[in-house]
Amino acid sequence: MFAAVCNEFYRYDDQDISLVDHATSVLADERDVEHVFTFDPDDFRTLGFTVVPDDTGEA
Q1: Residue 1 · residue 26 · CB < 8 Å
Q2: Which of 9, 41, 44, 45 is deepest in the core (most CB within 10 A)?
Q3: How many domains, in total, are found in the chain?
Q4: Signed CA dihedral, 40, 36, 44, 51: sign only
Q5: Does residue 58 lie in a domain region?
Q6: pTM attached to this predicted model
Q7: Per-residue pLDDT tens for 9-19?
Q8: DSSP string of 1-59?
Q9: Is 11 within a domain?
Q10: Is the residue at 32 inside a domain?
Q11: Residue 25 lies in a domain
Q12: d(CA 59, CA 55)
């Protein structure tokens, strides 16, 4: 898993996305998760996720 996280970290090296957010993204992708609850929505949108509550209107 660490290698996959590092690959994603380098793939998005033009972005200021934390290693923790990349790790969350890799784990979410492995589990077919499409929605992420976060208070830091821009990074996860960049990584291809729908952000809750911002993108869905859910609270």
Answers
A1: yes
A2: 44
A3: 1
A4: negative
A5: no
A6: 0.85
A7: 999 999 999 99
A8: -HHHHHHHHHHTTTS---HHHHHHHHHHHHTT--EEE-S-HHHHHHTTPEEETTTT---
A9: yes
A10: yes
A11: yes
A12: 11
